Amino acid sequence: MTAVLYSYRRCPYAMRARMALAYSGIPVEIREISLREKPASLLAISPKGTVPVLQNDGLVIEQSYDIMKWALKQSDPDCWLTAETEAVIDEWVAKNDGPFKKLLDQYKYPDRHPDISLEETLSQATASFLGPINEQLTKSTHLLGSKVSLADIAIFPFVRQFAMVDPDWIDQSGLDSLKQWLNQHLESPLFLSVMQKYPTWHDPTQE
């Protein structure tokens, strides 16, 4: 049975799951959902109704980072994740998925946070996350060294989303190493391959 991934093209969590699955070479049926009309088959296996969700026979994985790790356990040809690197990768991803994601939401939706200035959000994001990434990337081409790792793929879609809010800001930020890293991933065959457009999937049981 081919694995099924409930996905939404522009969601950074779904992006990183699709990238890991594609890299691992795992056959998967991508079901592009409508956030306004979530299919009953998705809600039946994952009532929280967020994407991505992976279903493979009796296995259901509801968190994108867990999907990535599962995929790499099946096949990891370039050693994106090893026993030696897992702890430091987990640390990077925890910072991304926790504090940085909160700042990203503040930056994308300032109307929802009228008590916080954009300048304050940008300052916090730079000091706590984007700056340290840039500093690391001045020493190596990727977060863990000269090769791509799970850390790069798990974090890149969120940095992409942050940069897209105001491209002029990232251009003028002085974060040149981060920008180079970002552009490298934006132009990578892997990323481009998972960003093709899929028609919205409709649950046949609802038709």
Automatic annotation (TrEMBL):
Any Pfam family matching the protein: GST_C_2
Cellular component, GO, one term: cytoplasm
Top-level division of the source organism's lineage: Bacteria
PROSITE patterns: GLUTAREDOXIN_2 (PS51354), GST_CTER (PS50405), GST_NTER (PS50404)
Domain GST C-terminal, residue spans: 82-206
Domain GST N-terminal: start-end pairs: 1-79
Gene Ontology MF, one: transferase activity
PANTHER family assigned: GLUTATHIONE S-TRANSFERASE OMEGA (PTHR43968:SF6), PTHR43968
Protein's name in the database: Glutathione S-transferase
